[in-house]
């Protein structure tokens, strides 16, 4: 079975820890994304799975087989590199078939599998072209076909969309996800792009400084972040300091009281609320003030001040006759949200990884 288990996988370089005890169990046919800023350890983790970096501690298990000390070609993985890593002097077909040739697959079988892989990525009509004759999106699909053609137990993607423009990123991302689901590929993907991870992954693994901070679905991480780093990294989030009073009131550092989701556990810390959960309305007696407004077509972004705190709200752009269309910087406004939209995150939650 194409399952992947990371059991206490760590990597140290002298005194520096690049990855600290990653435990992760990826199920057959699941796409899991390692998400985090540059230098957080996600690419090192992927390369330990691929066999390009040897762990300092822990095990990598694929399909129930311990592959920790095996070389890359013996691990039954297919990898798509950030740079595509295509051979410029080889045709599309030869690039795709290179792994099969290294595995001593016979010519007839190799040709059949190359044709099938190119058909899957819709490049069968371009098999004789060289990489330089292809667009960026087409080159990415060649790299995908090359990884797929060996029928890997585990599919590895290293920033697969980072070299594409915005339109192609969305298009190729959908193609990768469709292929992954249709073929039932167990997939581990590295990305620093939160939108990419949210759109493609069954589960996300947020990393910082070599540690796993939280594992969960896109909804888990977005709606219930375990700490301030996750709240701020996965989507935009307003983080306000203060203390809970009772079960559903949060007292800001300025002294103002605002509603929060009922919870008897977290008292002090940060109030986390997403910009799209905040309502803004013109109100001469409102406690808030509009500092700036940005029209973004389908949505409008409001930069606000409430009790000395800077807050960002995002709403669908109001219709022309909506009073909000006449708001201008300096206007008083009413700022509201339903209590369940605001979650208190304890101060110490950012210090301990969440599983």
TrEMBL record:
Q: What range(s) does the ABC transporter domain occupy? A: 4-234
Q: One Pfam family, short name please?
A: TOBE_2
Topological type in the membrane: Peripheral membrane protein
One GO term describing the cellular component: ATP-binding cassette (ABC) transporter complex
What lineage does the source organism belong to? Answer: Bacteria, Pseudomonadati, Pseudomonadota, Alphaproteobacteria, Hyphomicrobiales
UniProt KW keywords: ATP-binding, Nucleotide-binding, Transport
Protein name (database record): Spermidine/putrescine ABC transporter ATPase
Q: Which family does it belong to?
A: Belongs to the ABC transporter superfamily.
Could you tell me where this protein is found in the cell? Cell inner membrane
Source organism:
Methylobacterium variabile
What GO annotations for molecular function exist for this entry? ABC-type transporter activity; ATP binding; ATP hydrolysis activity
| Annotated Gene3D superfamilies | 2.40.50.100, P-loop containing nucleotide triphosphate hydrolases
